[in-house]
Amino acid sequence: MNKGAYQICNRCVMDSTDPDILFDEKGCCQYCTAYLKKKEAWKITDAKKAELARIVEKIKKDGKNKDYDCLIGVSGGVDSTYVAYLTKQLGLRPLAVHLDNGWDSELAVANIEKTLDKLGIDLYTHVIDWEEFKDLQKSFLKASIPGMEIPSDHGIISILNKISAKHSLSYIINGSNNATEFIMSKKWSESEGQRDWLLIKNIQKRFGTKKLKSFPRISIFDQFYFKLIKKNATVNILNYIEYSKKDVMKEIEEKLGWKYYGGKHYESIYTRFTQGYIQPRKFNIDKRKAHLSNLICYGEMTREAALEELKQDPYPSKEMREMDREYFMKKLNYTEAQFKEMMEQPTLRYSDYPGYFNNKFYKKLRDLAFSFHLMLKRNNYYGEIIEKGDSE
Q1: Mean pLDDT over residues 83-95, rounded?
Q2: Confidence of residue 380 (pLDDT cuts 50, 70, 90)
Q3: For residues 13 and 294, is the Cβ–Cβ distance under 8 A?
Q4: 282 in Cβ contact with 337 (< 8 Å)
Q5: Domain coordinates of the chain in residue numbers?
């Protein structure tokens, strides 16, 4: 491929708007190639069903005589709603945790309330200090990196771990799953900085006007503490069942009264606007390409249907887009001039700011801790509950 020439994968819909993409001689990208190599191992076999039964039994046993036996995060989205439903179907007693960052849509709030009420699940909501968090979000917008959701993601991870420690719960049931979330460019993903407190602190120090006094944080040392001392384990429970987005959405609509909000992670107004408006226009990132490519490889969507969907605007409707833009501007106190300046600022990478991932000391420390973590897994330190590739 000539430098600068556009190319799209012949099998999925990932394309050269991702700077890391590589194509083989058949014109297929490394993402779907890797997916198809792993797909066989992801199949739900009798052995995997037995493993799920063993995990559930272990969680129940360790949670005996406690008010709850596990923790789940809830957002009002498809995956977290189904995790809530599934945990109850399996006889678990979860405590639901929600981070209210000030951007929940009315539909998301209604989904959470209906779901937990019908399932009889208790809810802990952490309401973030809005003025402090608003200043942090504006700092990340000024930083001009794609990961505008990093502060929210970091806060969620921090709260889940701290609440699990408070209630002496070792198991966090996660809605992540290989089948629908494997394909994603690192250059597009917030996962590069989700756990990086040093990155967050340095971006706020450079661009912010407020000190982060109450913002929920989890440093690299906290991560070691929760993982190695408190033995917190993340269980990606959807990897143990046949998981079809279409079927799941239909089921939670019928059983729980859940309602769809128009796109992946669009239950948050901030996510909807940054992912549906700012990222495509400023960074040339359309995450639908990754989301749809997963569904193509999983066999839940044809490539032709995905290409047709990509012809449409990322927003469910023009009216919603304009309404969200107005809400975004007002909530963050942006003038048109400030918004225009933010959108036109040259784009940067995570590595342009100091963080754990590009600090030699922290990188060595992380590698050492990971090696220690693997050794503990091999020696059954975690009670045989940790699955392959958990929690990271």
Answers
A1: 97
A2: low
A3: no
A4: no
A5: 44-285+317-378
